[in-house]
């Protein structure tokens, strides 16, 4: 079967012909000799290629930005040498990862707009049946909604452009949150009404990375949860939004297409076709080890060279590593806190305990012990270590069933307070993690809705870290400042322990914690604009209204 991969390039030029603010597909010019204004979008194959072209920019809009923007900026991930520009808002308008996310998602929107504009007027006789035209349009609408969802999660407000022939000389202005949400809702409803539950039996060029009706319901759930979080933050009644989110969570579940895998490793295992296409995954950026144009280097980002010949870009903070119970399979199967150097079998790297910080380095021991300042995740395990082959099959999972179950638990708690169904859903995730019921929560563990929300927030960190969820979760739950301040306090405590263990004077290593906002002249605020990112200055300097994208309620 043919899969749709993150880097697949459709041989199609209409996107390039449709000028668009930040959004044209920019395919090679020679492709206009294949399709032009007279012969494009004539056949069903043309329409299929137009939709396929949207996926060309999926990688640019999601990797590595998903992790950089949503995990490294929180207590879920760490990037050495970052200088903490994310948390301190240092020159983010000129940051390449921020720009990559902005550009990639706008390019998807531009190609989706072009596909929608051109497929809509095509006569149904051009397709093998009327349902096929609706299906193609549904796919384009989903991808447009997905890209806008990504943009609004990262930048809060952006322009709203739905015309594939948008005048490139126009001056775009920021749309309201309400207008952006309305467009995404409409697109996702169109998608849900015509996308199949599965592509397995469709002979339309592959199914691997295409969205399904379940994915559309899942993003409608997320959209309404985010809206409810905004409403609660503003002191408004969010019950209607929570109820809508519940409806869509139930629709995902009711498809019967998704299930938790037996173990957490089964979700991420890149070594077998069965695992790569397991039915816990609802929507993902797929990769191929067989098709270089569709491959991903994602695995290299999450492993150090000394462990698995990787690039050591993203890692796990010790503060998160220490939160896990040792019997939790999300710890034992997914986290790497100890390993032998791939070049030197007499050198061992090891994460210290909270009390050991600063004491493990020992050049005279055998094996030599090197203290790790961070741990690593095997969610993106590089199975081809030492081969220098970067055509890897690892998925970038954007929505999975475990997330939906935790979301439903959250929604029911917001609607009804602490309840047995929410508790059972939370415990379902924990029972897989521990392989038993010993670590289940009981109703008596929670007194208030806020208590359960806090526990759920912590569980989502343990389950979904480095999957692009954390910053969005913290904002929606109203816990961004609380958890970020606690994270920075924990870093300070760790460094102070290290000073004592090394016999250093108090404050000798203060530079390791004083760089964080908690200890600066600009500490975090509940409604801090630093929860979101500035639109890249290459655009905001040309279109001044874009400078105001993070303007909202302040403390």
TrEMBL record:
Every SusD-like N-terminal domain range: 81-225
Tell me the first and last residues of the signal peptide.
1-23
Q: Where is this protein localized, as stated in its record? A: Cell outer membrane
**Predominant subcellular localization, coarse grouping:** membrane
Span of domain RagB/SusD:
320-549
Could you list this entry's UniProt keywords, alphabetically sorted.
Cell outer membrane, Membrane, Signal
User: So what family is this one in?
Assistant: Belongs to the SusD family.
Protein name per its UniProtKB record: RagB/SusD family nutrient uptake outer membrane protein
Taxonomy of the source species: Bacteria, Pseudomonadati, Bacteroidota, Bacteroidia, Bacteroidales
């Amino acid at each position: 079967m043919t899969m749709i991969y993150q880097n697949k390039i459709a041989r199609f030029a209409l996107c390039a012909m449709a000028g668009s603010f930040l959004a044209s597909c920019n395919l090679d010019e020679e492709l206009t000799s294949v399709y032009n204004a007279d012969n494009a979008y004539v056949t069903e194959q043309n329409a299929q290629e137009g939709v396929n072209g949207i996926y060309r920019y999926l990688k640019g809009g999601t990797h590595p930005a998903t992790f950089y923007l949503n995990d490294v900026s929180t207590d879920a991930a760490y990037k050495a040498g970052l200088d903490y520009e994310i948390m301190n808002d240092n020159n983010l308008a000129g940051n390449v990862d921020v720009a990559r996310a902005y550009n990639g998602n706008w390019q998807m929107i531009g190609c989706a707009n072009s596909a929608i504009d051109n497929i809509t007027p095509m006569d149904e006789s051009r397709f093998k049946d009327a349902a096929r035209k609706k299906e193609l349009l549904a796919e384009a609408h989903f991808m447009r909604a997905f890209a806008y969802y990504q943009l609004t999660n990262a930048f809060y407000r952006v322009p709203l452009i739905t015309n594939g022939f948008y005048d490139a000389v126009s001056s775009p202005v920021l749309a309201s949150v309400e207008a952006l949400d309305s467009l995404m809702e409409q697109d996702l409803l169109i998608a849900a009404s015509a996308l199949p539950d599965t592509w397995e039996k469709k002979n339309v060029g592959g199914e691997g990375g295409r969205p399904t009706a379940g994915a559309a319901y899942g993003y409608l759930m997320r959209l309404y949860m985010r809206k409810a979080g905004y409403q609660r933050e503003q002191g408004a009644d969010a019950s209607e939004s929570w109820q809508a989110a519940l409806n869509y969570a139930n629709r995902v579940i009711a498809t019967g297409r998704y299930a938790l895998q037996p173990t957490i490793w089964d979700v991420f295992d890149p070594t077998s076709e069965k695992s790569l296409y397991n039915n816990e995954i609802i929507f993902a950026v797929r990769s191929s080890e067989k098709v270089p144009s569709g491959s991903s280097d994602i695995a290299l980002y999450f492993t150090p060279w000394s462990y698995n010949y990787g690039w050591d870009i993203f890692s796990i903070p010790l503060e998160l590593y220490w939160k896990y119970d040792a019997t939790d399979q999300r710890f034992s199967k997914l986290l790497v806190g100890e390993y032998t150097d791939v070049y030197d079998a007499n050198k061992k790297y090891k994460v210290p305990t909270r009390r050991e910080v600063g004491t493990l380095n020992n050049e005279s021991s055998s094996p030599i012990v090197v203290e790790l300042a961070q741990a690593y995740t095997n969610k993106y395990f590089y199975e081809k270590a030492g081969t220098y082959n970067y055509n890897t099959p690892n998925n970038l999972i954007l929505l999975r069933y475990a997330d939906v179950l935790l979301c439903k638990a959250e929604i029911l708690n917001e609607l009804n307070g602490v309840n047995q169904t929410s508790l059972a859903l939370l415990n379902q995730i924990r029972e897989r993690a521990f392989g038993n019921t010993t670590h289940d929560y009981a109703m008596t563990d929670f007194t208030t809705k806020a208590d359960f929300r806090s526990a759920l927030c912590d569980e989502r960190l343990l389950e979904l870290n480095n999957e692009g969820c954390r910053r969005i979760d913290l904002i929606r739950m109203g816990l961004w400042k609380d958890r970020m301040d606690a994270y920075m306090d924990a870093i300070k405590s760790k460094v102070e322990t290290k000073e004592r263990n090394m016999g250093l004077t108090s404050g000798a290593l203060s530079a390791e914690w004083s760089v964080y906002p908690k200890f600066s002249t600009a500490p975090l605020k509940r409604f801090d604009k630093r929860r979101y990112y500035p639109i890249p200055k290459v655009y905001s300097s040309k279109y001044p209204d874009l400078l105001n994208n993070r303007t909202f309620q302040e403390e």
